[in-house]
Write a structure and sequence with these properties.
The protein contains eight helices and nine strands. It is α+β, with helices and mostly antiparallel strands.
Length: about 240
Amino acid sequence: MLDVVVNGLWGPRGEAVPDIAERWSGTLTALKDIDGPTFDVWHEAGDDRPSDPVLETSAPVLAEYIERKNTGPDLDVVGYTTSLWAHNPAAPRVSMAIHPGSTSRYALNYVSLAFLSREVDETAEVIRRAPEYLRILAEHWQIDAGQVYNRPQYRAVAKRFDLDNSDPRCGRAVFLSAGRAALAPEDLPGTYVRTAHGGLVIDLTRGGTESPDIETVIEANARLRAAGALEKLPEPFDRDRF
């Protein structure tokens, strides 16, 4: 059973819907450039059936979709919650959820890609390239921290360090914003890829060629936490990045 997530978090950042749509459209285009068979034919959130409407991924169409799905009051405070899904032949089901635009000091913004399959496993090329997707999320959304993980890794790290869902952590790959990256040890067992805006992806899979075990992931978390690279944003949240 494949269950892998790539996600990113950041603090308060007010954004207009057209700007959010530009970020989202750029993300989807970059993902499709890497793996067209997986990241194509996106459906609106619904019953997760082929009959769900297919949505064009241009910025104007996505802006209209975001506005259609978010009709409540105080959206400039609570942010915009929206998602899409795709499930193409020989590819895992993938969903992309976003919650940007919140200026609340008590709720984080996020973006995530989730991969589910009973036929495709973690050795598939689309999953081995997950650290690349983390870089794409980081560069398009200017996130504070992010990770790639499967469920056993996530649960083990959360239990070992007593973490809440919103706490920064390292999975099989981790993204650190510029302030966090400056604190990171330079000799973790993975590859280091610098990103736009001064960020850093540390990939414990070394480009998908290795499968780090849970103890390796826990040790990476311990060292990053000891260095201060995985500290929480100050609460109530007073900035969008560390």
